[in-house]
Amino acid sequence: MTSDLSQIGFLLFVSALVAMLTRRWAMPYTVGLVLAGMGLYFLHISIKWQLSKELIFSVFLPPLVFEAALFIGWREFKKDLPVVLLLATVGVIVAAAVTAAGMRYALAWTGAARSYSAC
Predict the structure, then answer these.
(1) Among 4, 44, 89, 104, which residue is least crowded by beta carbons within 10 Å?
(2) Could you give the CA distance from residue 7 to residue 13 in angstroms, rounded to a whole number?
(3) pLDDT of residue 52
(4) How many other C-beta atoms lie within 10 A of the C-beta of residue 32?
(5) d(CA 111, CA 85)
(6) Residue 18's CB: how many other CB atoms inside 10 A?
(7) 97 with 112, same domain?
(8) Is the pTM of this model over 0.70?
């Protein structure tokens, strides 16, 4: 494993192998990826990448979310739709309000409106 290109090729091979095995064994793909990562760790195979927030959010998370959305059943989605809509609307509003109140009262932040009023 000398270059980044060979490491990417190796990881793509491992992920394709995991995809085939999890489909054959009727196991979720994400569980297979976790087990494969644990196997690579115990075999002392190291990948020279720095794990960062940008790498997780831009490389790893979108395919996992897309795969989960692609294979969800319509009946399951219809059954969970009220909870999803409630959390996507009311849940986000409540979380934003709690965060704003915490920033205002716990940390004594005054907000952005006052900093622009002097201009």
Answers:
(1) 44
(2) 10
(3) 84
(4) 19
(5) 29
(6) 21
(7) yes
(8) no
pLDDT, tens digit, 9 for 90 and up, residues 61-96:
888 888 888 888 899 889 999 999 999 999 999 999
- Which band of pLDDT confidence, cut at 50, 70 and 90, is reported for residue 56? confident
Domain holding 25, by residue range, is 1-71
Domains: count for the chain: 2
86 and 28, same domain (yes or no): no
Do residues 57 and 104 share a domain?
Answer: no
Asked if residue 88 and residue 114 are part of one domain, the reply reads yes
Q: In this predicted structure, what is the pLDDT of residue 97?
A: 94
Q: What residues contact 1, with CB distance under 8 A and at least 6 apart?
A: 7, 10, 45, 46, 47, 48
> Do 46 and 88 contact (CB within 8 A), yes or no?
no
